Structures are given as C-alpha cells and as structure tokens.
Amino acid sequence: MRTQWAFEGTRTPHANFYTALNALHPDLIIYEPFHFRQNKTGTDFTGVEYIGIIRMFGQQKEIPTKTITPGQGKGFWTNDKIKSLALWVPGKLHAMDATRILMTYLSKNDIEWFSAALAKLKEHLNGS
Description:
By secondary structure, the protein is mainly alpha-helical. It has helices at 13-24, 46-61, 70-74, 79-84, 93-109, 111-125, and strands at residues 29-31, 65-67.
C-alpha cells in the first residue's frame, strides 16, 4: 500500500525519518536533547523537529525514549577510550558524540557489555 503525502510526488526529510524509524522496529530510542542557549544567534531548531518525531513515534508505538547529553557521555567516555575500543571514526565528531551517548546508555543498562568494554580498556592500558 502506498502512502499519500500532502504534496504528491515529494517526501519531506521528516517523513523519510519517520519511515526509517518504522523500518528499524526499535525497542528503545536514545537521543540527545536540545538545549536552547539564549545568547546564541542563528540557532537551528531542526533538531527539535526530529526530537518531536522521535517522541511521537515512541508514544504511538509504545517504545521508550531516553535522553542523554553529550556532557554525560564525555564524563567517562573520552575520545581516547573510544579510540582504544577501535570505535573512533576520524572527522565524524557528531557521530562520535552519538557513539558516546550510546556507550553511556549501555554502561548503565548492560553490565555484561560494560564489563567487556572495561576489560578491553584495561588490556589496552596494560599494552596487551
């Protein structure tokens, strides 16, 4: 069945994002919250729109959504630790922040994963 859109023949990035979420069938969605900074000029609110789509999708599908700030992630998951785990992608700083957010969630919610990551970090520190 083909979905009808408001403007026949066009799909917005927002619709594409919603379709992608549907195709992924996530059990959980973790995202970075948007924080408005009063003195910052030229603020781009596109992220707020996508957060709205995430939250609506979560409500519709009864899927939990969680927010983690990059600052929460940087508290433990430094660039060096991410590099030690061979997860670093040069030139992709925003993607690395997203990786850091995921790793923060896993650290708090998957003790088996976190223990394995710590063991690998320890090996790296010991030069193994």
